[in-house]
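Q: For a teaching session next week I want to show students how multiple molecules come together into a single three-dimensional assembly. I've collected the sequence lines for a complex. Could you give me the predicted structure tokens for the whole thing so I can convert them for display?
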Amino acid sequence: VRVAVIGGGATGLGVAWDLALRGLEVTLFEQRELAGGTTGRFHGLLHSGGRYLVTDPSAAKECFEESQLLSHIAPEGVELTGGYFVRLAGDDPAFESAWVKRAEDLALGIRPAAHKELASVFPSLTREAASGWWVPDGVLEGFRMAEMLAAAIVSRGGIIREHAKVVGLEAPGDTVHAVTIETPGGTETVACDAVVNCAGPWAGVVAGDLGLKVRIQPSFGLMLIFANRMVPKVINRLKRPGDGDIFVPHQEVVILGTTDVAQDHPEAPLPRREDVAHLMALGRELFPELDSWRILRAFNGVRPLYLPSEAQTDSRALSRDFTVIDHGASEGLEGAFSLVGGKWTTFRLMAERLGDALCSHYHIDAPCRTRETPIAQTHRPAHASSTPILCECEHVAESDLGPEESTDKLRLGTWFGMGPCQGTFCAHRVLGRSWPGELDSRLAKLREERERGLAPVMWGANARLVALNRSLRGQLLGEDLR
Ligand SMILES: Cc1cc2nc3c(=O)[nH]c(=O)nc-3n(C[C@H](O)[C@H](O)[C@H](O)COP(=O)(O)OP(=O)(O)OC[C@H]3O[C@@H](n4cnc5c(N)ncnc54)[C@H](O)[C@@H]3O)c2cc1C
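A: Of course. Below is the structure for the complete assembly, covering every listed component.
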């Protein structure tokens, strides 16, 4: 059976990996570059399940099991920092009791954390902290995991096509026969027996293009990045999940998230200053000195929340769980499936359920093998070596540069330009070495992309630093700043 997977985010990569391991012929189509959607725009929390214990216990259980499993099959894609849930004096103690009871029921492995422990891990934590609990939360390195999955898929014979947008379906007799794709080289028809819509926030739009029905409620969330990994472990507020209640460390930075605002399209909007102010105010409740932390940039990601019925519109109330849709059963189009909702942390389980449904539809006897098959680390060595360091903030050495065809792939693969100086110096070195003849044009594009996230957080000391960076770039590095 030949399967076309639409979408190169966590969901599509997971599905392509699952099906390739079952021995199916898989081609994944991504309209942009891999991880260019929500998969590259999230907090990076490897959920222990703690966040959903009270509001969505079945999602909590899935998260717990999957996070444990991922740490075994893909250890290079996660960082097992551990994390804490902290209740502040004004937060509801009844919620804490319900949360502890659920954690014990699920054997989540929590333990109480005394004030002394909290103060030693988070020296600038508010004095309003009433109680704390350790949880097995971790960090999911989204870009690295996506890169590892892509390499694994290709190693099993799967095909990945970037810059290939699926725009239509050929289904004579209501049976899938081919997808139509648009590429920079023109329009093509690619034969397949099944198609799986894994287009995340775009899943509703894609379904419409294929003549199917899927209702998605896109909802965007703002995240703020601070320099210098100001917290060493994940920290959550112990209260009903809401805005601005989690900090996740990530390599050399820390991310504060998030908000939840329904919108009517799948694209990530530009961050707004008023949302930044709102998030800062909430973040200060945990860390009163937050304004003294150096804020690097702001960005939005869009949740692909599935709307099973017409009535539901409150996006916080929608489940973070996932749904497999067999459009053969629901709409009579044989061989068409959608996999919607879910989280990065549960991508493997989501793919397993989809793979089971697809194989049972085609009477294929091929069990899921992702549970026990390692997702190997890719070629990129962890911070080599004796070659010159090109990006001091993120320790990127010359030998870390791969043969990437795009600036974004190089940036997301190595992390250059993502640290405190936001690429002021290293962009010249990295881009100049990788594409000597295209430095100016690539630099201009990179600066434009970085400035989009900087604009909404430019105030006080940060604005002065940005001005200093700009003058260094103009006067020392000879960049044209017009
Ligand atoms: C603010 C925020 C914070 C989050 N934090 C966490 C967290 O800490 N931990 C966690 O586990 N999860 C988190 N999530 C959830 C998680 O990021 C998402 O569930 C997951 O990344 C969704 O992946 P996806 O593949 O379904 O969607 P996407 O990553 O958006 O992938 C869909 C892909 O489909 C492509 N596409 C669209 N149309 C077409 C077409 N016609 N042809 C070809 N390709 C197409 C898009 O370009 C895109 O790359 C967060 C989400 C948000 C919004």
